[in-house]
Amino acid sequence: MTNQTSFPAGTILGYPRIGRRRELKKAVEAFWAGRIDAAELETTAAGLRSATRARLVELGLGQSDSSIPESFSFYDQVLDAAVTVGAIPTRFADLVGDDGRIDLAGYFTVARGEGARAPLEMTKWFDTNYHYLVPEIGPSTVFSLASDRLLDEFLEAKAEGYLTRPSIVGPVTLLLLSKPSDDAPEGFRPLDRLEELLPVYAELLAKLADAGAEWVQLDESALVSESIDVDRATTLEATRLAYAALTAGERPSIFVAAAYNSLDDALPVLVDSGVEAIGLDLVRGSLPTHVEHLGETVLVGGVVDGHNIWRGDLAAAYDKLEALGTLTFNVSVSSSTSLQHLPHDVTDESKLDPRLVSWLAFADQKVQQIATLAHGLSGGRVAIQSELDAATDALADRLAAPGVRDGDVRLREAALTEGDFARAAYADRLEAQEAALGLPFLPTTTIGSFPQTGDIRRARARFVKGELSAEEYTELMRAEIRRVVELQEEIGLDVLVHGEPERNDMVQYFAENLDGFAVTENGWVQSYGSRCTRPSILWGDVSRPAPITVDWSVYTQSLTPKPVKGMLTGPVTILAWSFVRDDQPLGETARQVAFALRDEIADLEAAGIGIVQVDEPALRELLPLKQRDQPSYLDWSVGSFKLATAGVRSETQIHTHLCYSEFGVVIDAIRELDADVTSIEAARSRMDVVHDIESSGFDHGVGPGVYDIHSPRVPSVDEVTELLEKALSAVPERQLWVNPDCGLKTRGYDETVESLKNVIEATNRVRTRVATPA
Ligand SMILES: Nc1nc2c(c(=O)[nH]1)N[C@@H](CNc1ccc(C(=O)N[C@@H](CCC(=O)N[C@@H](CCC(=O)N[C@@H](CCC(=O)O)C(=O)O)C(=O)O)C(=O)O)cc1)CN2
Ligand code: MET
Ligand SMILES: [Zn+2]
């Protein structure tokens, strides 16, 4: 298996850019707050890039063999590609100079909006918890090479003595992930603009070649997804056209990387296009059995999981490379995806159990694994046998460790029956709930969280450091709850929440309170822009040692005669936003989490909480990219939600909440959840989702959001009224709830209070209008 071209033996598709202590997040937020200027932010970013290169060499990548990707971004790699080709919507035209360029402040304005000017829409990146910004492209978008960042970063590295590999989202994926601009005619698709886009990519490649780049990486993960609204034949033809054009000119060698699943029928198209190297995700995707005309094309086996933290089965990874070696002599090794989904370094986790640590590999350890496998590709299995054996031993230790299998949890699973998944008929429940709750027409509520203020976070940080006692911390959170309850009563909401101040994160908080999970101190991963999460590690069988939320909810209910909604995160979302064990099917793990939630809900009900919301914002996100995998996913995901929620009495009202649009795609699954009330994001898309609700005949309670919480903008009473009227025209009166799009944790208090007041005033207007005979 010798590598006959100069593609590096081992590489990664991308590296975390937020910084091991979130230096980039802090610098970017300081820039937004006006505490540092653009020059200082640039300096911090350059320092991070420089540290990354040095670290990657230290971990075993080559300094001058193009194995280090230039994969930095200030905010998002899709936005970067859009900015590079000059695809900035016309509402930002004043930010664009005569040369088509936009400065750093302008770049952030496109990402985050400003005043009444909406930012680019944000949506999930494939089946991950990373969000990208959706470019808007229309018939009149003018493409031009409008940024030298990628070139400058390559030159910056070169000046430091590195030969790196510039990396950018490829042209087909850029267009497939874009949406038509507002001025585009019906039926227009961004992909229609491919031919005009290609010369810009060609120009960029020529410049990179001129500067001395030997390889460039084009990320074309959209080619693996079947969830994109363009038919496959058109996508394949676009791919053929794009790479025929890009291979024709002056350019570095081209590495097309496709992460998150198999390329399937796009692989032969790429092979025939003459690109020099193709990256395959061999963790999620499967090994191609036979590929024609491979010639000298390098197949880069993504055998090290870039999306999970397990050290895993290194020998099996090497086996896959050997299997790839039966197709071609030109095999290299890589991560299956960019490592941007992983925390930096497991050696930063001094508080984790060392035994658990021995089973883990964060980004830095993955790089070392890749360096090992690359060594094996040249030296043969014997050269790395001891490393393979060590990983095999660690895996065996993990599978046999106490807690990985818990007899009681297994017994409970074995005893499940159909009846555990079903509630009484909806009509009977509705009647019982209306009688028990006595809510007005158009009941108003919020999605759960209120602003997570600096004070709340600082109090928690002091509690974690031991500077506050548990009692002091609890009292501070209770004081916050009292404020939030008073505020909701004053504003006039009908169903109150406690505001979730005690939660660092809606998933991590539950992980900290369940057995089977571990949490990290420094394991930050970028979710979008400067926002990060610390995904928990679900390593063993899950159980609930004690009630988690009951005291908080009961305390809140004691403060008000209005119904307080208990607030839990659902099994699918807990899995989606954690690093999950890979030694059993996800459905099995989801059922264990569901049992824990079922017990929690029973305790809430017994303590007098009449409404419980179980959030499932990640239901859409985990939907498999390949249609063939979707039915079984929908089966276990819906099943786990029902298992969690079906144990309650008819008069107990179960809510669920989903955000991130595309409801058309999961509406059938939402119906099957059988929640009494479902709140969904709708304000951002001007309530268009009600058409999906109407045409699907969804007949349970539904709260399409009337307030877009992603922006600080306060919606006016007129605006909310209009959204409510639009909803009422499609959804029967008795079904409709009034709520924001999502939780308020990222918002400030001022705009939150003003917005909620407007929501209530609009609701009262509509109530009066409906009650007044025409
Ligand atoms: N896991 C997850 N995924 C999700 C969401 C979500 O809520 N959770 N929501 C959607 C959107 N994604 C989001 C992801 C992150 C955040 C977010 O607000 N993250 C916070 C961190 C939240 C957190 O973990 N907070 C901790 C730690 C906060 C912190 O940084 N503390 C300071 C100290 C306190 C201070 O001085 O401010 C520190 O450690 O340095 C806490 O509250 O305890 C951030 O990046 O700023 C929001 C939305 C989709 N995916
Ligand atoms: C991302 S969905 C968020 C739901 C959660 N209950 C909140 O209000 O923050
Ligand atoms: Zn939400």
Describe the structure.
- This protein is α/β, with parallel strands linked by helices.
- The protein has two domains: 23-400, TIM Barrel; 429-771, TIM Barrel (Alpha-Beta Barrel), CATH 3.20.20.210.
- The strands form six sheets. It has a seven-stranded parallel β-sheet. Strands 16-18-19-20-21 form a five-stranded parallel β-sheet.
- Helix 24 links the parallel strand 20 and strand 21.
- Helix 10 (314-324) packs across helix 12 (363-379), helix 23 packs across helix 24 and helix 25 packs across helix 26.
- The chain is globular.
- The structure holds the ligand Nc1nc2c(c(=O)[nH]1)N[C@@H](CNc1ccc(C(=O)N[C@@H](CCC(=O)N[C@@H](CCC(=O)N[C@@H](CCC(=O)O)C(=O)O)C(=O)O)C(=O)O)cc1)CN2, methionine and zinc ion.
- The ligand Nc1nc2c(c(=O)[nH]1)N[C@@H](CNc1ccc(C(=O)N[C@@H](CCC(=O)N[C@@H](CCC(=O)N[C@@H](CCC(=O)O)C(=O)O)C(=O)O)C(=O)O)cc1)CN2 binds next to helix 16, strand 13 and strand 14.
- Residues 447, 617, 657, 659, 742-743 line the site of zinc ion.
Secondary structure layout plus pairing:
Elements: H1 23-32, H2 38-58, E1 69-70, H3 77-84, H4 104-112, E2 121-124, E3 131-134, E4 136-137, H5 149-159, E5 165-169, H6 171-176, E6 179-180, H7 194-210, E7 215-219, H8 232-248, E8 253-258, H9 266-273, E9 277-281, E10 298-304, H10 314-324, E11 331-335, H11 354-357, H12 363-379, H13 381-400, H14 407-414, H15 426-437, H16 454-464, H17 470-491, H18 508-512, E12 515-518, E13 525-528, E14 531-533, E15 537-543, H19 550-558, E16 565-569, H20 571-576, E17 579-580, H21 586-606, E18 611-615, H22 630-645, E19 653-658, H23 663-673, E20 677-680, H24 689-696, E21 701-704, H25 717-730, H26 749-771
Bound molecules: ligand 39S, methionine and zinc ion (ZN).
Residues 447, 617, 657, 659, 742-743 line the site of zinc ion.
